[in-house]
Amino acid sequence: MTRRSKCIAALTTAAISGLAFATDAPPGDAGAQWQFAAGPYLWLPTVSGTLRFSLPGGGADASSGPYNYLQNLRFALMLQGDARKGDWSVFADAIYLNFGRHDSSVNSTSGVLGTRETQKDVQTSFAGTLVQLGGGRTVVRQGWGYIDAIAGLRYLGVKATLDAALGATAGSRPGATTNFHVGQMQNIFDGFAGVRGRATLTTDGAWYIPFYLDVGTGTSKFTWQALTGVAYATKRVDFGVLYRYLAFYGSGDQLVQTLRFSGPSVNVTFKF
Which UniProt keywords apply (predicted)? Predict the structure, then answer.
């Protein structure tokens, strides 16, 4: 099987196995039974950022991405879900992405890598696991829709590698090239708070705009996420086309200096 075929198969698996994120069931009466929303979804984010690698005698800041799904993706898995009882709700989100090697540029170097001019070839790879758990309470409920206040915890586990071809200034004989490889990991735990909800576009509520916004901090200096789009609701199934953005900003010698996920998603949500 070709790499392109493997990538398409991985994306198909992600689409079939996902659970809904933003098109959750609307709030009901305080004494209502639990309501659940689940269904396949597909998010195709562009992934980019800057990674800081610790090296003998110094370090290197290397750009990461933007990664191309059909060329670089090795595996993807996305699972999300939502449960609601009256004004109270809980939600979860889990994503795993594994990208192969990608041509990158080194923004600054020191130590074993020498100066930027000694670089003949630089590549990075990236694999990340995102897990988000949160809860919310409806604070506004009107004829046009509702707004939930939310809070939760977001975890990001990152594994990245840097591969470079070094020139003679790194200690080899004149004209020789030495391959250099380093791999690092970082676990990021951030708390977040924000809002989510929906605004109806038609009097029957069939067409609506789902929205989500949060900000947070913790291991990261700052993280934020936003999502919106348009959706159509039937009695048992919702269909949505959304756009999602998620970013992390680190500091100091952390591996993740900046990391951004942005792109469209397609949701099919079954309510029960």
Answer: Signal
